[in-house]
Write a structure and sequence with these properties.
The complex is a heterodimer of chains A (282) and B (431). Chain A has 12 helices and 1 strand. Chain A is mostly helical and 282 residues long. Chain A has one domain. In chain A, helix 3 crosses helix 4, helix 3 crosses helix 7 and helix 4 runs antiparallel to helix 11. Chain B has 431 residues and is an alpha/beta fold. Chain B has 3 domains: 211 residues, P-loop containing nucleotide triphosphate hydrolases (Rossmann fold, 3-Layer(aba) Sandwich), CATH 3.40.50.300; 38 residues, no CATH class; 137 residues, Coagulation Factor XIII, Chain A, domain 1 (Distorted Sandwich). Chain B contains 9 helices and 18 strands. In chain B, helix 4 crosses helix 5, helix 4 packs across helix 6 and helix 6 runs parallel beside helix 7. Chain B is elongated. Classes of the chains: A mainly alpha (282), B alpha/beta (431). Strand 1 of chain A pairs antiparallel with strand 4 of chain B. Chain B: Keywords: ATP-binding, Nucleotide-binding, Transport. Chain B: Belongs to the ABC transporter superfamily. Chain B: InterPro entries: AAA+_ATPase, ABC_transporter-like_ATP-bd, ABC_transpr_TagH-like, Bact_Polysacc_Export_ATP-bd, P-loop_NTPase, Wzt_C. Chain B: It comes from Cyclobacterium jeungdonense.
């Protein structure tokens, strides 16, 4: 009788770095089932479901055009304001929905988590992938608007080869949103009141992200503050790739990449630590 | 020789009562700030005992050791709070043990609930895939079994309808169909599966038997003695977090039932005659419950007859005495009152309705098999003179437990309504 071939050993503590990634791979079908569920749920539940993804950025863009362009007169680096705001919003919306939706992973899924085991990381991963759907719709809207400005208004549109980096930019936005989201979700198992802080904090964060203004508008300490935000180079880069306006440098992108990797790793480690026995606390 | 598929070594689980921190950031930050300034126990400083209370520990499991061999059906029983669900949760990897180790060989799946993760907007078929994936099946595995699952569920017609339009019965059937087609090497089943309608339970129990027949291993947690007895060969008894017994299921069940007899009274003897219930006419000396072999016992099976006996002494020649028994359930519901008046009994009692000479008498009433429902009953014993004067009254003189033999449980394992459970005559005709 062999005694060495145990398939699973349940121990009180495993190494923080044992992320059981092979488990994650074994449950990959579940990841796509969750994505499909989110997709179907959104489309079936409301008539406005998918339409909402378009209405929200359109209305926000119009609002920004009135308030920040017309009234406040904040420049847009020479780009058409509608395109300027919408391009920032598309990225920002993806980030904020990744962050907000993953930030209540534990509290929202306590029911399932209490009844069956699967790698918990599947849930926030599926959220990040599901959010790509609304991102895709909004990106489509942006492209349509871009085409309109190019064909009918004869605006200067400078689509360039930087656009090929879009998947990498997206991956960074997703990783940032996911990293912070799971850090927050891990903390909310202990601190329930963090939930209120998060939605408010995200709102505030938008104002230190170049969504409604270009980075070039600021200088000195303000600029340093805005540059500390790892989303800043990503949005500037994205704007540059489609509108030809943007202010970023290699080291800023490098900072953003490193920041992203660290926050994602920290998030996964913390999540991994909390997931093992959060059911005792919640 | 079949190999060991689960080895549980010294597993303990500690829960902290109350909350770990204070629950809000504000308080924790305040505490942290206070500590920083050297003021210890900003929040707990006023009353140190409160601080201690907050960190009270509770051991849900204490040093549990056991092994399960391949193909075994192991029953785990115990009262509420014995640690059954903690053990289940650890085995299902929902939480981790505080100490100890569990080694598992083979794929393990646990069913603490059916239909976990079902989404109302998705169709029956989509939910099969979703639920199957949550339970650990791959898409191709589910695809291979899809037809089988749909056929088993009996909801073929509605399989493309969102399940929010399903009746609760259809919902459960679909959920169970998915669960039943899981093919892990080790299956952990919680007793929640045994509630629901009779058909569902029958299917559930039948499927478990079949799974075990295929050489797979099952852990079944329940406090339904009839169910564990009919399914499991070996059993574990947990009590207050400790493993009390690991033996054949029958022995474990018997031990458990005997253990749970605290407070049962098979016999009351009034040794000091002057203190015995009664007066100068007559006194009750002993009240007892005896089984069919004439042995006093506080536990009787539903499917066995038993007797309630009153032994009394008559002190006056010519007394006309009647023995009377009243039965109550544990919750105080009156079950019956019976007395040996000539017109109130179905046989002939030689001392019923005739003047008695001095001496000791033993009156007993036979309670038929398949008459009382399972549960705990109290009996009062009364002696009546001339049919109306109470001479002696012994309140709750015997307390006994009627247990389910499983004889009427071949189809249904859930709660059985009522204080009595007779087998009655049923006829069904074609109209």
């Amino acid at each position: 009788m062999d005694t060495k071939t145990w398939t699973l050993i349940i121990k009180p503590k495993t190494s923080s770095f044992d992320l059981h990634l092979n488990d994650l791979w074994r449950y990959r079908d579940l990841l796509f089932m969750f994505v499909k569920r989110d997709f179907v749920a959104v489309y079936k539940q409301t008539i406005l479901g998918p339409l909402w993804f378009i209405i929200q950025p359109i209305l926000t863009t119009i609002l920004f055009m009135v308030v920040f362009d017309q009234v406040a007169g904040i420049p847009t680096d020479g780009a058409p304001p509608a395109l300027f705001y919408l391009s920032g919003l598309v990225i920002w919306n993806y980030f904020s929905s990744c962050l907000l939706k993953t930030s209540n992973t534990f509290t929202n899924n306590a029911g399932i988590f209490g009844k069956v085991y699967f790698p918990r990381l599947i849930v926030p991963l599926s959220i990040v992938i599901s959010a790509l759907i609304s991102f895709g719709i909004q990106l489509g809207l942006l492209l349509v608007l871009l085409g309109y400005f190019f064909l009918f208004l004869d605006s200067q549109i400078q689509l360039n080869y930087y656009l090929f980096f879009l998947p990498i930019l997206l991956a960074m936005v997703a990783a940032l949103g996911l990293g912070f989201g799971i850090i927050i979700s891990s903390l909310t198992t202990k601190y329930r009141d963090l939930v209120f802080l998060v939605s408010f904090g995200v709102q505030l964060l938008m104002y230190v992200t170049p969504v409604i203004y270009p980075l070039s508008f600021f200088s000195g300490n303000y600029k340093a503050l805005i540059l500390a935000n790892p989303l800043t180079p990503i949005i500037e880069f994205f704007r540059f790739s489609i509108l030809g306006v943007g202010d970023f440098s290699g080291w800023q992108i490098g900072y953003s990449v490193i920041f992203t990797i660290i926050s994602l790793l920290a998030g996964i480690l913390l999540f991994n630590k909390v997931e093992r026995d959060f059911m005792d606390v919640i | 020789m079949s190999q060991i598929v689960i080895r549980v070594e010294g597993v303990s689980k500690r829960y902290q009562l109350g909350s770990f921190g204070t629950g809000t950031i504000k308080e924790d930050l305040n505490r942290w700030w206070a500590n920083l300034r050297g003021k210890k126990n900003y929040y707990f400083g006023i009353d140190e005992s409160e601080h201690n209370n907050r960190e009270e520990e509770y051991w849900a499991l204490k040093d549990i050791n056991f092994e399960i061999k391949q193909g075994e059906i192991l029953g785990i029983i115990g009262k509420n709070g014995a640690g059954k669900s903690s053990l289940l949760k650890i085995l299902s990897r929902i939480t981790t043990p505080t100490a100890g180790e569990i080694k598992i060989r083979g794929r393990i799946a646990s069913l603490l609930e059916v239909g976990t993760g079902f989404h109302p907007e998705l169709t029956g078929k989509e939910n099969i895939f979703l639920n199957g994936a949550i339970l650990g099946m791959t898409k191709s595995e589910i695809k291979n079994k899809l037809d089988e699952i749909i056929a088993f569920s009996g909801v073929e017609k509605h399989i493309d309808t969102p399940i929010k339009r399903y009746s609760s019965g259809m919902y459960v059937r679909l959920a169970f169909a998915v669960a039943a087609h899981l093919e892990p090497e080790i299956l952990i089943v919680d007793e929640v599966l045994a509630v629901g309608d009779a058909e569902f339970q029958k299917k559930c129990i039948g499927k478990m038997g079949q799974i075990a027949h295929d050489g797979r291993t099952i852990l079944f947690v329940s406090h339904n003695m009839a169910a564990v007895n009919s399914l499991c060969k070996r059993g574990l008894l947990l009590n207050k977090g400790e493993l009390l017994l690991n033996d054949s299921m029958e022995k474990v069940v018997n031990f458990y039932l005997n253990e749970s007899d605290k407070g049962l009274v098979a016999q009351t003897n009034f040794e000091d005659v002057n203190q015995a219930p009664g007066n100068k006419n007559a006194r009750i000396l002993t009240i007892r419950i005896v089984n069919k072999n004439g042995v006093a016992c506080s536990i009787v099976s539903i499917s066995d007859v038993f007797y309630l006996e009153i032994i009394f002494e008559n002190y006056v020649n010519g007394n006309l005495l009647t023995s009377n028994i009243q039965l109550y359930t544990q919750s105080g519901v009156g079950v019956l009152s019976t007395a040996n008046w000539k017109s109130a009994i179905s046989n002939v009692d030689q001392f019923s309705g005739i003047p008695l000479k001095k001496g000791k008498y033993r009156s007993k009433v036979k309670i038929p098999a398949n008459f009382l429902n399972e549960g705990i009953y109290f009996a009062n014993a009364i002696l009546l003179q001339n049919s109306s004067n109470i001479v002696a009254f012994a309140k709750e003189a015997v307390v006994f437990n009627v247990i389910d033999s499983g004889e009427m449980r071949k189809e249904y394992l859930g709660d059985w309504l009522g204080v009595i459970r007779p087998k009655l005559v049923w006829t069904t005709n074609l109209e």
